[in-house]
Specification:
8 helices, 34% helix, alpha/beta, single chain, Rossmann fold, 275 residues
Length: 275
C-alpha cells in the first residue's frame, strides 16, 4: 500500500454497507447465531408469514451473501499465495500488543499486512503501523457499529493493499467473543486470544468462538502470581469445547511463550506456500 503517512493507517468508513441495528435481524439478540435464528412463534404454532419468518429469511440472505464473498476472498488470497489469519478476542485481552510483538518477529522475512477492525478510532491501527507493515483500518461506527468484520469489509479493505508483495495478511477483528466467530471472511486460520484476567470459564460461556478457532493464546501469564486464576482449568475448558486445539500460554508484555506461537504460525504459512 503506497501513500501511507508515517505512523498512521489507512481509514475505511464502511457505514454505507450497513443497515441500522433495528433493521438487522441477525443482531436482534446479542450473541445469537443467525444460522440458528429461532422463530419466535409459540410451540405448535404455524407462522407462515409473520415477522419471525421474515427475520429468518433476512438472516439467511445475510449469511449466504457473506459466505459467497468469503469464497471469493479465499480464492483471491490463494491466487496470490497469501496466508490469512483472523485474530479474535474480547476487548482488553492484549490482542494488539500480541500482534505488535508478532510483527517484530515475523518481519521483514515474512511480508505482512494488517487489517484492523474497530467500532471507532484508529488507535490500534496506528500502533501496528509503527512496525512498518501496511495497515488498513476498518471502522463500523455508523448506527452504533457492527460487532464483527464481514467478508465484504475485508474485500474492500484488501483493495488498498498490494497483495502481490505479501506472504501474510492478519485481520485483527473487533473485540467480541460472539459475532466474529459467526462470519467467515476468507481466512485460512482463526486464533482466539484469552487473557488470564477474564476468567477460566470463558470457553464454556462462548463455545462457538473456541470451537471455530484453530489455536488459542492464553495471554498475560505474567500476571498469574497476582491473580486467583487456575490456568489448567482454563486450558481444560478450551479442550472440552475443542479437543486437541493448540493452546499457547504467553505474555505479550514479557514475550514469554511467544517462540512456540511464532513457530506454529510460520509453519502454517509454509504449508500454504507449499500447497
Amino acid at each position: 500500500m503506497t501513500g501511507r503517512h508515517e505512523n498512521m493507517s489507512e481509514l475505511f468508513d464502511f457505514s454505507f454497507l450497513h443497515r441500522p441495528h433495528h433493521e438487522r435481524s441477525h443482531h436482534d439478540h446479542p450473541g445469537s447465531d443467525p444460522r440458528r435464528h429461532h422463530d419466535p412463534q409459540p410451540a405448535g404454532g404455524n407462522n407462515t408469514g409473520g415477522k419471525g419468518s421474515r427475520e429468518i429469511q433476512v438472516a439467511r440472505r445475510v449469511l449466504d451473501a457473506n459466505e459467497e464473498m468469503a469464497r471469493r476472498n479465499r480464492q483471491i488470497f490463494s491466487d496470490h499465495g497469501i496466508f490469512v489469519l483472523n485474530m479474535m478476542s474480547s476487548p482488553g485481552s492484549g490482542k494488539t500488543t500480541t500482534l505488535e510483538k508478532t510483527l517484530v518477529r515475523l518481519m521483514p522475512e515474512i511480508r505482512t499486512a494488517v487489517i484492523v477492525g474497530d467500532i471507532c478510532t484508529t488507535h490500534d491501527a496506528d500502533r501496528l503501523a509503527g512496525s512498518g507493515a501496511p495497515v488498513v483500518q476498518v471502522n463500523t461506527d455508523a448506527f452504533g457499529g457492527d460487532c464483527h468484520l464481514s467478508a465484504q469489509m475485508i474485500e474492500k479493505a484488501a483493495a488498498g493493499i498490494h497483495l502481490n508483495s505479501l506472504d501474510l495478511l492478519i485481520v485483527e477483528n473487533i473485540g467480541n467473543l460472539v459475532c466474529p466467530a459467526e462470519f467467515d471472511i476468507g481466512e485460512d486460520a482463526r486464533v482466539v486470544v484469552l487473557s488470564v484476567t477474564e476468567g477460566e470459564d470463558k470457553p464454556a460461556k462462548y463455545p462457538l468462538m473456541f470451537r471455530e478457532c484453530d489455536a488459542a493464546l492464553l495471554n498475560k501469564i505474567d500476571l498469574l502470581p497476582y491473580l486467583d486464576y487456575d490456568r489448567q482449568a482454563a486450558v481444560d475448558f478450551i479442550h472440552q469445547v475443542h479437543p486437541g486445539m493448540p493452546v499457547f500460554e504467553i505474555s505479550a508484555k514479557t514475550e514469554e511463550g511467544l517462540d512456540a506461537w511464532i513457530e506454529w504460525l510460520t509453519a502454517a504459512i509454509r504449508r500454504k506456500r507449499s500447497g
